[in-house]
Automatic annotation (TrEMBL):
Belongs to the HAM1 NTPase family. GO terms for cellular component: cytoplasm. InterPro entries: ITPase-like_fam, RdgB/HAM1. This is XTP/dITP diphosphohydrolase. One of its GO terms (biological process) is nucleoside triphosphate catabolic process. PANTHER family: INOSINE TRIPHOSPHATE PYROPHOSPHATASE, INOSINE TRIPHOSPHATE PYROPHOSPHATASE/HAM1 PROTEIN. Signal peptide: none annotated. Keywords: Hydrolase. SUPFAM superfamilies: ITPase-like.
């Protein structure tokens, strides 16, 4: 059974469109390392979740990157939402630029313990073999292969509109409509998460 690892029910709702019945949510709060990019955060999370669950794990790390704020809040989007809140982050963005161009990014990291993605790079392989041979749990985790998928959607930050979706959806406008004004299907058709899930589902079905 594939476990979609997140504490966020909004993400699960969107993922169901791509993963149907073969997925169930694992409400597990994996360690989020600090990094400017989402990829290493998601990869580390997927390894930890797989070790925890003992089942194939798919981690979804996402964030809002505002151009005029040099990518802030980016990997810290959840923290900024909890502290400042979606509306104040929106104000910061619009104070910095008008229009306040931004993008949502999503990285999916899949780990099932199999070496499906054995690196062709012998140095990398040797590193993995060495890491797998140690007793150190964190080093062993680094040896687990992870497959990454990502999606991006461009838009602009506006005054909040709409009551659908979650997180920053009310302030993120794409083609004249905020994500909170769209149905889940409409959002999936253009969103960062939809793009990443589409790629994952295609790979997963044919792996
Ligand atoms: O489609 C989206 N529509 C609106 N907001 C979004 C979206 N995608 C990510 N976001 C925001 C929500 C949160 O403030 C942060 C994700 O943070 P992120 O750490 O990936 O997720 P999270 O803490 O909500 O749940 P979890 O880590 O358990 O999956 O970016």
């Amino acid at each position: 059974m594939l476990r979609y690892v997140t504490t966020n029910a909004g993400k699960v709702r969107e993922a169901r469109d791509y993963l149907d019945s073969e997925v169930s949510q694992l409400d597990f709060d994996y360690t989020e390392i600090q990094a400017p990019d989402l990829e290493p955060i998601a990869a580390r999370g997927a390894r930890e979740a797989y070790r925890h669950a003992g089942e194939p794990a798919l981690v979804d790390d996402a964030g809002l990157f505002v151009d005029a704020l040099d990518g802030f809040p980016g990997p810290y989007s959840a923290y900024a939402e909890e502290t400042l809140g979606m509306e104040r982050v929106g104000h910061l963005a619009r104070d910095a630029a008008d229009p306040a161009r931004a993008e949502f990014r999503c990285v999916l990291a899949y780990c099932d313990g199999d070496a499906f993605d054995a690196s062709p790079d012998p140095v990398d392989r040797a590193d993995r073999a060495a890491a797998a041979a140690t007793d150190d749990r964190e080093e062993q985790d680094d040896a687990l292969p992870v497959k990454l998928f990502s999606g991006v959607v461009r838009g602009r930050i506006v005054e909040p509109r709409g009551d659908g979706g979650f997180g920053y959806d009310p302030v993120f406008e794409h083609d004249g409509t905020t994500f909170a004004e769209m149905s889940a299907a409409e959002k999936n058709a253009v969103s960062h998460r939809g793009r990443a899930l589409e790629q994952f589902a295609e790979w997963y079905a044919t792996r």
